[in-house]
């Protein structure tokens, strides 16, 4: 029936290969490789192809999508964040960073129409103070 996968497609065989120069007494001395069922790998290829087609049909991935993309890594994401913060700082603007993502910012009322922009520093600080119920350091305050 639809949506069902064979049990053999849901499991992998684990093969452990010793890392060069290691004794083999600890789990970290081995490199794990999961061997998947051939049918599962073929099916995975079909799904990946269809997903790529659909993503392209819908306009492709955002240039800010770093995960699960060839040639992109967390280092690229970090570099983009640092460049953005540096640019905003050079322009004497204000920028808020959130590890919770856009939906968390919206939940807490932190995300406005322009989260990195030319908004008045005082307005943003008072907004953050009232929404988070946390004190925010102001210019001239000691650390």
TrEMBL record:
Keyword annotations: Nucleotidyltransferase, RNA-directed DNA polymerase, Transferase
Chain segments carrying region Disordered: 118-143
Protein's UniProt keywords contain Nucleotidyltransferase: yes
Highest taxon in the source lineage: Eukaryota
GO molecular function, one term: RNA-directed DNA polymerase activity
This protein's name: Putative RNA-directed DNA polymerase from transposon X-element
Name of the encoding gene: RTXE
